[in-house]
Amino acid sequence: MAIKLYNTLTRQKEVFEPLQPGKVSMYVCGPTVYSKAHVGHAMSALVFDIIRRYFLYRGYNVMHVMNYTDVDDKIIQRANQEGIDPIKLAERYIEEYRRHVADLNCLPATHYPRATQEIGQIISMIQNLGENDYAYAVEGDVYFRVTKDQDYGKLSGRKLEDMQAGARIGVDERKEHPMDFALWKSAKPGEPAWDSPWGKGRPGWHIECSAMNLHHLGEQIDIHGGGNDLIFPHHENEIAQSESLTGKPFARYWVHNGMMQLAGQKMSKSLGNLVTIEEFLAAHEGDALRMMVLNSSYRNPLTFGEDVIAQAESALERLRNALRPASGGQASPELQQQVEATRRAFEECMDDDFNSAGALGYLFELARTINQGKDAGQDVAGAQAALRELMTVLGLRTEKPAAQGAAAAPFIELLIEMRRELRAQKLWALSDLVRDRLAALNVVIEDSKQGTTWRWK
RNA sequence: GGCGUCGUGGCCAAGUGGCAAGGCAAGGGUCUGCAAAACCCUGAUCAGGGGUUCAAAUCCCCUCGACGCCUCCA
After folding, report:
1. Distance, angstroms, CA A10 to C1' B63?
2. What residue numbers bound the domain in which A255 lies?
3. Cβ–Cβ < 8 Å for A222, A18
4. Residue A144 in contact with residue A125, Cβ under 8 Å?
5. Which nucleotide is nearest to A161 (CA to C1')?
6. Cis upstream peptide for A233 (omega within 30°)
7. Which of A34, A92, A353, A366 qualifies as a cystine partner to A75, CB 3.0-4.6 A?
8. A237 CA to B70 C1', in Å?
9. How many domains, chain A?
10. Could you tell me which of A240, A249, A250, A246 has the C-alpha nearest to residue A148?
11. What is the pLDDT of residues A42-79, one digit of tens each?
12. Is the pLDDT of residue A163 over 70?
């Protein structure tokens, strides 16, 4: 069975064939670090983490590069407002982002290049483009000449004539064509700047990704990812730059995730309708967001809201409950067959453009099978191991991360022990009081024939 | 105006030609001192209209509606 994935470039699902057998090179556009990241950024990180984990599960060696844009107009503007160094500002948000991604249980990328660390590479690329007539300099700025690129627009399906260049923003009269875009921007006084053949300046937005790709992954890569808001102009321009330079197809598969929506609109910094990752994680665990992402298809918009979060949390709990220890039992060949069928169905879904919602459905069916097995006194350890494994493939934690009050455990157990005595003496009111008060402290108590268990809510 | 995505039960959502997965919520039941967890049972003909087909949620056309991109954006 082969993995199929939807390629924005061809607008269809294609069988994944890597450039090198057994290896996947994947580049994902990261954030511009000028303010706090929001759950939309988290969605993108989660989507590509899920994709990456699945490739790993299928035995591929994955090279995963995610960049930080750490120099641009907004960073400079924000730093000026705060009266601090732009590079410092970027550094601050990079650190924060890194923590968030870890909290979301995303595997760390293989490399995290930054624009400011690739200046040499960027300059030589621009020079090269200039020598081949793909770029021209005007007063210290350098632009890419879109008319020189035969297939410009192929990713986003646009023609130069159809684009209303400058419809919403004034056209720079110095450009040969309104759609020409900046490769290098001359510096104004006080801005971060690097020496270049065109004078002091800094790279344009698109060129950094082309340069980082070339540097870290080579002239051609398997998968290039990012949010679908990057298709145009960012990824279009990356293709233009990279392919004009190397003469080779750049990325084989372009993969784009849909946008997180809030209040019926795309969540974005410019609109201001956002929930930061920090805010989300203060109230919920990262896996709740991951469940939301898994339960929908990554290419479609995902609506953010408290009701949907609550649903995801309940669903997550159901999966984890199925993993709670069972008390031995009879081996069951039927159960084992079920497990194998689940695994096949799971893979079939994930193979089909990472249909995580479908795959998740089979995990819930497996959970039910496990619970039924428990009731029937069967040995469900093997089924639980499979569920645990497949949850991990999706990046779900099989247990709730240890709560803050871990030190309270001995005291909780003491209370449970005393409550056992109360129950033995049928002092129901008192024993229920203990349970209720613990519940108020987010400790859930459950009685069963095997005894009493507790866990953090 | 151009390019693109989408509209499935109360909510989230898979399915993209052959009797509509799964989760959450709800109601009924079993178990339990009670509760929780768990198990069993109950519910949609797929925005609307037309067409193709033996057969359509699934293909084609039209209408309505939502959203994204065309400026920075995951």
Report:
1. 29
2. 4-278
3. yes
4. no
5. B2
6. yes
7. A34
8. 14
9. 3
10. A240
11. 999 999 999 999 999 999 999 999 999 999 999 999 99
12. yes
Nearest nt by C1' to A263 Cα: B67
Closest nucleotide to A345's CA, by C1' atom? B21
User: For residue A334, what is the domain's CATH number?
Assistant: 1.20.120.640
Which bases on strand B have an atom closer than 7 Å to a protein beta carbon? 1-6, 11-16, 21-25, 32-40, 66-74
Q: What is the pLDDT of residue A402?
A: 74
Summarize pLDDT for A94-121 with one digit per residue, the tens: 999 999 999 999 999 999 999 999 999 9
Nucleotide nearest to A308 (CA to C1'): B12
**C-alpha–C-alpha distance, residues A339 and A58, integer Å:** 18
Give me the CA A114–C1' B2 separation in Å, rounded.
35
* Residues A58 and A200 both lie in one domain: yes
Question: Tell me: the pLDDT tens digits for A272-318?
Answer: 889 999 999 999 999 999 999 999 999 999 999 999 999 999 999 99
The ipTM estimated for the assembled molecules is: 0.95
Q: Are residues A419 and A329 in the same domain?
A: no
DSSP annotation of A32: B
- Claim to verify: residue A331 and residue A429 sit in the same structural domain: no
Pick the last residue of a domain from A346, A364, A393.
Answer: A393
Amino acid found at A254: W
